Amino acid sequence: MSEDYKKMWEELDIDLERHDQLLGGLSQLYTNVYLLQKNRPKGMEYYDYVISEVHGLRIKELCDFRKKGNKVVAYFCLYVPEELVLASGAVLVGLCGGSNFADQDAEAVLPRNICPLIKASYGFKVARVCPYFQAADLLVGETTCDGKKKMFELLGELVPLHTVEVPQKPETEQARKLFFEELNTLKSKLEELTGSKITSEGLKKSIETVNAKRAILERLVNTRKASPPPISGKDSLLVFQIAFYDDPQRFTQKTTELVEELEERIRKGEGVVDAEAPRIMISGCPMAIPNWKLHNIVENSGAVIVVEESCVGTRYISMGQIDNSSDSVDGLIKSIADAYLNIHCSCFTPNDGRIKDNIQLAKDFKVDGVIHYSLQTCHGYNIEAKKVESALKEQGIPMLTIETDYSGEDTGQLTTRIEAFLEMLKK
Predict the structure, then answer these.
(1) Protein fold of 2-187
(2) At 204, which helix (H) or strand (E)?
(3) 206-319+346-426 maps to which CATH number?
(4) What is the pLDDT of residue 2?
(5) Which residues of 17-33 are buried (b: 16+ CB within 10 A; e: fewer)?
């Protein structure tokens, strides 16, 4: 792949030597985590191909799109509505980093003891190893995290960046009014960027496109309620990760093909593990590519992950099907704003919605135990873990709390703790 796309990467000002190192490490990691699995659905071949071209074909599509005078918008969080970006004529791609590859570059500016996701997001830009950063015409940040907010200030000195204010008390009328106004401001920014007016017709069409993507992801999630589940937690995680940057209509088509295969597997009683394997829910922080460490440890230890209460999981689809019946732009933006505030992030206070989500998901997916996953220094999820644990305990559901980073240094320790947790569940 390197030779085929080298000229394109040079035009994007990629550090080619370090970029080759990054891709080489990713290839080996992906083989070890994904390609050695047994009894994988055939439909996963598409997602394997996407990863093999992760900095190739999709980047070429984005570059070709820009050469026609179009714009690429990149984002870090679910609270930036894909519907608005698509309605402006731009393309939206995700940026959050899931690797410590560029930590040293980030630590030249940022504190060492800061969230790994923040360091990765900043480091990949300053190290010039992420073509998604380089191909973006506008970055959109959000105020879900104090560390990210300050990092966005620094990032905004390097690239065009707009920040969306996310209210922290979403149940109030003031919060919903504020978020509606913030999305209207984002609308104006996107119109300025693209030179195209966002119309009610365009918004209706983009809402329909994203609703279709969420609907098929919900069907994917629901297949995992089966015993045994027809797909591994690792594979389902990968599908959700790719949803952040793949072409939405192609993604919906390919994921529909996968889900139809999974539903046929369920009818035949075929699964990826023994029906007696412990069923685990992962709850907490998002996992960006290539952060597959926890899923790999859990499933290599004999369990199966059947659901994620995460931004790269059920939170991604928690806004449901957005109403596009209004004939006005304001009416459609209000529908989007109201729906997106149903995503229960730990930045909210109080955040009883997320506690209820954990209980309901644990019951719906008949989990044997929950692993609460927090990135180091992610205070929102770290502190909220205690409330989640107490609520689950009242339901008789055991929980293990994990705090980690993107390195592999604690893999042995995590494996020991997770194996002990699984052994306790079996007893």
Answers:
(1) Rossmann fold (3.40.50)
(2) helix 200-223
(3) 3.40.50.11900
(4) 60
(5) eebeebbeebeebbeeb
